[in-house]
Amino acid sequence: MASIVITTLNARYIHTAFGLRYLYANLGELQHQTELLEFSINQRPIEIAEQLLQQQAKIIGFGVYIWNVAEISAVVAIIKQVAPQICIVLGGPEVSHPPDLPAVAELADYIITGNGEISFPKLCQQWLDAQAPAENIITGEAAALSALASPYPFYTDTDIRQRITYIEASRGCPFKCEFCLSSLDATAKPFPLEAFLQEMAVLHQRGARHFKFIDRTFNLKVDTSVAILEFFLARLSDDLYLHFEVIPDHLPERLKLAIQQFPAGMLQFEVGIQTFDPDIQQLISRKQDNAKTKDNLRWLREYSQAHIHADLIVGLPGDTLSGFADSFNQLVQLNPQEIQVGILKRLRGAPINRHSDHYQMRYDPNPPYSVLSTRNMDFATLQRLNRFARYWDLIGNSGRFSGSLPLIFADQPFERFLQLSDALYVLAGSTWKIALKRLFELVFVAMTDTLLISAADAETVLAEDFQRSSEKGKPTFLQKTDNESDKVRVANKRQRQLLV
User: Fold this and answer.
1) Same domain, 365 and 406
2) Are residues 169 and 258 in the same domain?
3) Sign of CA dihedral 417, 419, 423, 426
4) CA–CA separation, 66 vs 43, rounded Å?
5) Closest CA to 368 of 94, 96, 95, 19
């Protein structure tokens, strides 16, 4: 049994709670009294509460994020009903910006805002010594990065084999993009490089091959970026995979030379574009050289084998449907392997909230607090774009429709895919739980009836894409015999009737 339990609910099993491992590493003498437990948001709250209560802990600390606040609220409510004597401590971004707090804060005994590596152990010791502080909101104390104990030894062998290994080479961000909580940081601070690389060597020796760096600006300090890439270049293997979030307009030659040495399938760069509109960029304090950004994306696609995951945000203050379309079309022309169309979320404490009244920003009161309407985009428009984003993931980002997309796009990628998205929703009535074979059938109908692509052309490209998918069986539009080719339009109409 443990006196202290630290826990959170991950979005998926493959994820690991990096913040919990930092807390555990820095508990000092309390570590031997502490248990680290992880759950998934897909587990039932009552079963999570039961497992936590079995530890008979005096203190339970929860890491609260936008993706798990609803589920943690349910777990905490259960615990407080059956074991009110347990001290509940909440930490994490979702509870770090009082007075803007979720309802679960009312059930907590203590809330630690910001960093917890120093403040959480101190609070636990005070509670166990019956000297608990009177104030229930505690401002987390920041520590010098060199003084923090490493979290990496607390990845288990199972974690390393089956889950993502999160890595942090620096903390903070020097930029002030208002939609991001990192805009509250003073600057970015690196961990001591030599000690960091030693930790990476140990992880690699233990078998870690999937390294996801959570640094907001991996390529900010080129000397450090190159040193890290060279470390992994010396340890290349077919199963190595590295994920970095990079500044899109900063790609010096030394960094390019290192990037070029990686084979395909090993490097993924998350590139936050968000918008190409200079007026919106200025409004939300985002400094981005659009010309350099485009040049760098072209270079990455032409001269490197890195996989590019580029982000756009729907619903920024001042953005319009036509404005977002323009950003999307510009990004499509740059040909990243993935375009993540994300709907703006209301993050507690984010500076972008200062625009809420003027731009009539209305957010869902339920997590993850997606924007519902703005002065320039009404609810119906944002619902259309929500569906656009979902169908884009299924069709554009999945890689399964690579041959069909150019035909769908023609010379108007956003406009044509929005038409396709609208048609798919009419046909399917949902954006979820669509089997792959049926998705191909729906796309065929939408391409031919809505986009007015000839059935023969649509069939040719979709057949090639479907064959590459290795899915069993055939979509109905491929099941006709050769002598039926002159009756394609009749079959197409019959197919539409079956799908509606």
Assistant:
1) no
2) yes
3) positive
4) 17
5) 94
- Hey, is 234 helix, strand or coil? coil
What's the domain range around 413? Answer: 400-500
In a shared domain, residues 141 and 159: no
Same domain, 177 and 324: yes
Cα distance between residue 44 and residue 41, in whole Å: 8
Structurally, how many domains does the chain consist of? 3
Tokens describing residue 379: 């609810």
- CATH value at residue 241: 3.80.30.20
CA distance 412 to 421: 14
Separation CA 224–CA 254 (nearest Å): 11
In contact, 325 and 385? CB cutoff 8 Å:
no
Q: Where are the alpha helices (DSSP H) in 213-288?
A: 222-233, 253-260, 278-283
Are residues 176 and 323 both part of a single domain? yes
Among the listed residues 432, 426, 462, 427, the one whose alpha carbon sits nearest the alpha carbon of residue 444: 462
Check: pTM over 0.70? Answer yes or no.
yes
In terms of domains, do 352 and 414 share one? no
CB of 274 closer than 8 Å to CB of 232: no
Give, in order, the Cα–Cα distances in Å from 391 to each of 35, 422, 424, 425, 499. Answer: 41, 10, 8, 9, 17
Is residue 382 a part of any domain in this protein?
no
Beta-strand relationship, 241-246 and 210-213: parallel
Q: Among residues 99, 114, 145, which one ends one of the domains?
A: 145
The DSSP 8-state label assigned to residue 244 in this structure reads E
Of the candidates 31, 42, 33, the one whose C-alpha atom is nearest the C-alpha of residue 9 is 42
- Show the DSSP H helices in 212-320 as ranges: 222-233, 253-260, 278-283, 290-303
User: Are 363 and 371 a contacting pair, CB within 8 Å?
Assistant: yes
CB 345 within 8 A of CB 383: no
The reported pLDDT for the residue numbered 185 is: 81
CATH number at residue 73: 3.40.50.280
DSSP state of 164: -
Cβ contact 286:328 at 8 Å: no
66, two tokens: 């936008």
Question: What six digits make up the tokens of 213?
Answer: 């760096």
In whole numbers, what is the pLDDT of the chain averaged over residues? 94
The residue among 470, 486, 331 whose CA lies nearest residue 399 is: 470
Query: 25 lies in a domain?
Result: yes
Q: How do residues 232-251 score in pLDDT, each as one tens digit?
A: 999 999 999 999 999 999 99
The model's pLDDT over 104-149, given as tens digits with 9 standing for 90+, comes to 999 999 999 999 999 999 999 999 999 999 999 999 999 999 999 9
